[in-house]
Amino acid sequence: MTSGYGGGSGVGVKGVFIGAGCNRIVNNVSWGACDLVAFGAQNAVAIFNPKTAQISTTLPGHDAVNCTQWLPSNKFAFKDAAGAIILWEYSVLEGKWRYVQQVPQLHKKGVTCITGIMVSQTEAVFASTSSDSTVHLWEVVFPSTSGGDCNLLHLDSLCVGVKPMVALSLSELPGSAGYLVLAMGGLDNKIHLYCGERRGKFVRGCELRGHTDWIRSLDFSLPVCTTGEANNVLLVSSSQDRGIRIWKMDLRDSLDSNQSAYRKEKISLASYIEGPVLVAGTNSYQISLESLLIGHEDWVYSVEWQPPSTASSEGIAYCQPQSILSASMDKTMMIWKPEKTSGIWMNVVTVGELSHCALGFYGGHWSPNGDSILAHGYGGSFHLWKNVGTDFENWQPQKVPSGHFAAITDIAWGRSGQYLLSVSHDQTTRIFAPWQNEVSLGDEESWHEISRPQVHGHDINCVAIIQGKGNHRFVSGADEKVARVFEAPLSFLKTLGHAISQKSSFTEDIQVGVQILGANMSALGLSQKPIYVHAEQQTPDRNLNDNLDTFEAIPDAVPVVFTEPPIEDQLAWHTLWPESHKLYGHGNELFALCSDHDGTLVASSCKAQSAAVAEIWLWQVGSWKAVGRLQSHSLTVTQMEFSHDDKFLLAVSRDRQFTVFSIDKTGTDETSYQLVSKQEAHKRIIWACSWNPYGYEFATGSRDKTVKIWTVRKDSSVKQLTTLPQFNSSVTALSWVVVSIARAMTGSLQLEWKTV
C-alpha cells in the first residue's frame, strides 16, 4: 500500500470505513451467538456489528460467496459459488479472526446451503448441499485453545437424485442419544428426512408431502418439553407456494422385535391417518402436520425459530419460544405465534420495506436474544427492527450498514473531503460521510450513508464532482449516451450540516437561494424531478388508495432534514437529488468523466472503437455548452484528469496510449486546447492515471501490471521517470496523494495505488 518516490519512507494506513452490500441470494446472511452478523459481499465475507451499524472486517478467499453459517460456539463455516467451504475462527476475547482451513472440495458445483449443530462443547456436525445434487456431512472438533488446529472428519455423502436440494436443517432426536435427523428440501417440492448416528451412515427415513412448489427454507426447533421430558421436535418449512408448514415429530414407544408384525400394521395405519413414521434405532417418531400458515403474498424464502431463552423455573437448560420469523418476496417479514387459548398460529407482527424494486426479502434472522430481527433484500440492503416496547411489542427500524451490491465503477471526494461519492453497476449513486454526533468507542468517527442522490435505470459508469464555489453538484454517466447533472437540494445541505456540525469548514452560505427541497423518482426510473420548497406545504387532493405500494404507482418522496443517519427506506426514497441538466453529444455509452479544479470545465468520454467516437468532449459549467471536442485516441478513453493548475488535461485509453492536452481558458465563454504529447506507454490497456497534486508529474496504471511515472517538461514534452515494481495483477485504479506539505515542498511524494 505504500511506496516511496524520491526517497520517501512508508506511511501507515488505517481503515476507518467499509461499505458493502449483501449478495442477492438466499442463505447469504447469518446472525451468530456472539451478536455479530456475517454476510457475503461479492467474493468476501463481511462481518458487521448491529449495535454500531459498522462493518468491522472482510474475510477474502472465495470466488463468490453464496451463503454463511455460524456455529453456536462463535465459530463458523462459509461457502462459495465454486463449491468450496472455508472455516474461520473468531476469538470473542481478542476480537480477532483467524483462517483455520478449507474443507476438502467435494462439491463439483456451487454450494447453496449449509446447516450445523453443536453436539458437545467442542464438537459440531454440519452438512452442505450443492447444485450438483449431493449432500455432504462433516464433523469438526474445535481446538481447546484459541489458535489451535481443527480436526475435520467427513462423515457421509448422500446423492439426492436429479433435482438438487436447496434447504437443509439438522437436529438431535429427543429420546435417541447420539442420533441425528437431517431434513432437506428442494426442487421436487418434498421434504426428505434422513437419520443416523453421529459418526454412522445416514439412511433415508421418509418424506413429507404438502408443498406445491420448491422448498426454500427448513428449520428444526429445539426439543419441546411437555411433561418435563423432551419428547417431540418441530420442523418449520417454507416454499415458493407462499405457504409455511409446521411439522411435529412426536416420540413413540420403543420398537420391539417380538411385535414386528403389529408394529408394521400400526405404522401403516398411522401413516395413512396422521403421516409417516420416522424410525431411528430403537425409537420411532410419528410425524404430523401441526399447522399451515398462510399470510404472505409471494415466495417465502426463509423461516426461522426464535433463539432459545434461559428458563430456570422449570429446571430446563433452555426453553424453545413458540415463535417463528418468516421473510418473503412480498417485502414483508412476519412473526408467528400460537394464540394462547386456542393454540392456533397467528401472525402477530408484520414489518416491511418501501423500495423502488418490486422484489422483496431473501431472508430474515433473529438476534441471539430475540429482541431484533434482520432482513436482507433484493437491493443488497439490510433492514433491522428492534422491539423497544416494554408492556407491548413495538418494533422500530434501526440503523444498519449499507453499500453497493455490484461493482463500484467510480468514486469522488466532495469539497474539502466532507463526503465520499460513489457510483456502481447497481444503478445507484451514494454519499458516505462521517457523522460527528455518532462517535463510537475510542472516539473514532462513525461513517454512514447519508444520501442516495441518484437511483437510475442503467448501470452507472462514472462520476465527477464539480469543484469551485456554489452549491454541491456532480455529473454522472451511465450506459446511455447522455450525461446528467445533479444539484444538491436544501434537505441534503442541512443534513450535511448536522453530519459535520463539529467541522468549522462548513458554512450555511450555500443554503441561501436554494429553492429545491428534494426530488421525486419518475415512473421509468431515469429522470428525477425537483420538489420545490414552496410546493412542500401543499397537500395534493388524492384518493387514499393512491399511497399503496403497487407496481403501477410510485409514492411521492418526502424530503426531510436528518439529525441522525438515515435508514434504508429513507435513503431509497427521500434523499434523491434533482436533475438539472442533460448533456447530449456522445454517440455511445458514457465511460469517464472529470472536472477541473476551478469548477468551470467538465470532460467526458464514451465507449469507442474508432477515433471519431473516442473524442473527449469539454463542457462549460453553468451554460453546459460543448466548448471542445478533443481527438487523439482510437479506442475508449478510460480515465481523464486535470493537472493541479488546470493547464493540462491527461487522458489514457484502451489503445495503450496517453495524451496530454494544454488547456487555455482565455475568456468566460472561450476555451482553447492543443495536443502537446501522445505516447504508447504500456503493453496492455491503460486503466488509470493520476497527477502529482503539486507538480507536473503523473502516473499511469495498466493491465500489464505496471505503474509508470512521467513528467511534463518546460517545453511540454513528456519524459518517463521510473517504473514501479511489477504487481501480481492488473492495476485498475490509482491516486497520487501528498504525504505532508513539508515533504511536498522538498519533492518527496507518496503514491497510493490499488490493484485488482
Automatic annotation (TrEMBL):
Signal peptide coordinates: none
Pathway stated in the Swiss-Prot or TrEMBL entry: tRNA modification; 5-methoxycarbonylmethyl-2-thiouridine-tRNA biosynthesis
Protein's cellular compartments: Cytoplasm; Nucleus
Organism of origin: Prunus yedoensis var. nudiflora
Source species, domain of life: Eukaryota
WD repeats: 208-257, 630-671, 679-720
Alphabetized PANTHER family for the sequence: ELONGATOR COMPLEX PROTEIN 2 (PTHR44111:SF1)
UniProt name for this protein: Elongator complex protein 2
Family: Belongs to the WD repeat ELP2 family.
Entry-linked Pfam families: WD40 (PF00400)
A GO cellular component annotation in the UniProt record: nucleus
Alphabetical list of SUPFAM superfamilies matching this protein: WD40 repeat-like (SSF50978)
Annotated GO biological process: tRNA wobble uridine modification
InterPro entries, alphabetized: Elp2, WD40/YVTN_repeat-like_dom_sf, WD40_PAC1, WD40_repeat_dom_sf, WD40_rpt
Alphabetically ordered keywords of this record: Cytoplasm, Nucleus, Repeat, tRNA processing, WD repeat
Main location (coarse class): cytoplasm
